[in-house]
Specification:
single chain; mainly alpha; two-stranded antiparallel ribbon; 50% helix; elongated
């Protein structure tokens, strides 16, 4: 079920992300390719490849924004704390389930409450304003894809700017104002690419560390430790990205059953 949080900070980060990506596309097409590669097939190829990465970036970002991160549905009956310790009080569906005092319900293992989403999220990693959503059990794959495509786009943009400065272009416009505009936009693009590139690399490293150690950022902050026996890294990646072919891990679509969600049991009070 699609979800969308009404968080002003999230709105700002989403618009900032789209604006930065569209500006990068504008600079690459208008001031790099059309100015320095307009007479070669390499220019057309770079425009196509650059926009394919942008398309994959937007698709993975949209899936991360609107996908259910793993919200634990509220039961029909809330916990009555007045008699929770009495003989007729509420009984947890399973021994390892815990109580969420904000949602007034039992929650499964590794689920945590998000004060922004106002829900308990299965295997919650953190709430990310850049996707205006929590990163949890069901959308972590799309969030990691978004980080990877932003990193690829940043590296590609820097490489194109460097090539346009290094190579000699006899057919380039000689107008000094066009040259100054191209240099100004290229410098701004490099600054943007370096900033966003370093930012997503740092976050991606945290994400892969959380996957390989089988410990989310919330669990690391609470010092709760890994929950399961040690598994191979490929198996841990498959739990997040899906049990289909690994090539499908790079596409923002369903790639096999990636989690066995046990139904939330209703409990009486």
């Amino acid at each position: 079920m699609p979800v969308f949080q009404k968080d002003p900070c999230g709105f700002f980060c989403i618009f900032m992300t789209y604006g930065a990506v569209l500006y990068a596309d504008y600079v690459v097409v208008r001031w790099i390719v059309m100015q320095t590669m307009s007479t070669t097939l390499w220019g057309s190829l770079h425009v196509v490849l650059f926009n394919i990465i942008i398309f994959m970036l937007f698709m993975s970002h949209a899936r991360a924004v609107f996908s259910d991160p793993g919200i634990v549905p509220l039961p029909k009956h809330r916990i009555d704390f007045s008699d929770s310790h009495s003989e007729g009080g509420s009984i947890a569906p399973k021994e390892d389930w815990t109580i969420c005092t904000r949602c007034e319900m039992y929650r499964p293992p590794r689920a945590h409450h998000c004060r922004i989403c106002k829900h308990c999220i299965r295997r919650m990693d953190h709430h990310c304003p850049w996707i205006n959503n929590c990163v949890g059990e069901k959308n972590q794959k799309y969030f990691i894809q978004f980080l990877v495509y932003v990193g690829l786009l940043s590296a590609y943009a820097i490489a194109l700017v460097a090539w346009s400065w290094y190579s000699e272009c006899e057919d380039c416009p000689k107008d000094i104002r066009l040259k100054q505009s191209r240099i100004l936009h290229s410098i701004l693009l490099i600054m943007e690419s370096v900033l966003f590139g370093m930012f997503v690399i740092a976050i991606a490293c945290d994400q892969f560390e959380a996957i390989f150690t089988d410990e989310t950022l919330v669990e690391q902050a609470k010092k709760q430790g890994p929950f399961r026996p040690r598994k191979p890294r490929l198996a841990l990646l498959a739990e997040v990205c899906g049990r289909g072919h690994p090539i499908m891990w790079f596409f923002p679509c369903h790639s096999g059953d990636k989690f066995a969600v046990e139904p939330l049991m209703n409990y009486n009070v």
